[in-house]
Amino acid sequence: MTHTRNTPASNTKSRPRRRAVRQKTTLPASGFVGRARRARENPMAVRPLRDGRYVVETDGGTYVVDTEADTCTCPDSAIRDAECKHLRRVRIEIADGLIPAPDERASVCAVCGGRTYVPRFESGPVLCDRHDHAPGDLVRDRETKSLLVVLRATGDRADRSRTESDRPVAEYETNADYGSHEPVFEAVYVDSVPLVEDVAELRAKKRYLFPASRLVPVESGFAREQVRRTLAGSLPGGESRTTQATLG
């Protein structure tokens, strides 16, 4: 997490904060020719707009790019109907993760504070790819060192997600070292039982709630979808025998 530096008190009236101007940059252009090369070697600053379009500032002017409509306000696109260097540059920066896609917005990971991108209208705490967990992932509990399979993200923070005893997850002593603002995941301990067998036995296991950073990734997509749904008690016509268990 970054902090602003403290400044001395002043009797002068504070000025409105100015939006930071993104500096023009270039990208490696070796091996490219034509517009593809100019899209990389020409200095440009790309800034996302709230409507999913992008402002591209260049030494020759400022243009608006719409990647979904494949248009740019520059003459090369507007008059010649070409895939201009500005449109190409925006697509490169999206692919490289330098800017969000048209349907995304920039956000901050609740665990590490790193920049990440999420669907534009998604609410609630956010995680980057390094700290997120998908249903079916095999993870390890930092406290017990045991293996678990992730069932789902609850969509709640640790200080707002409650166990069946109506106690916030963040209040348990075993979660004292993890952020109360972190997203909560539901998972089941799998011990040494293979997930491709004994599905009925696994289905009886209790479900536990964990702050995101308490779970350490081991293997992505470990559990097959059918097994995962069985663990969650959500097979069509199936009756759940799992219960929400408390922590600690």
UniProtKB/TrEMBL annotation:
Q: Does the keyword Cell wall biogenesis/degradation apply?
A: no
Ranges for region Disordered: 1-29
Annotated source species: Halopelagius inordinatus
The protein's UniProt keywords, in alphabetical order, are:
Metal-binding, Zinc, Zinc-finger
- Which GO terms of the molecular function aspect are on file? zinc ion binding
Which positions fall inside the SWIM-type domain? 63-95
Question: Can you tell which superkingdom this protein's organism belongs to?
Answer: Archaea
Q: Which residues form a coiled coil?
A: none
Q: What protein name is recorded for this chain?
A: SWIM-type domain-containing protein
Q: Which PROSITE patterns match?
A: ZF_SWIM
UniProt feature, compositional bias: Polar residues: 1-13
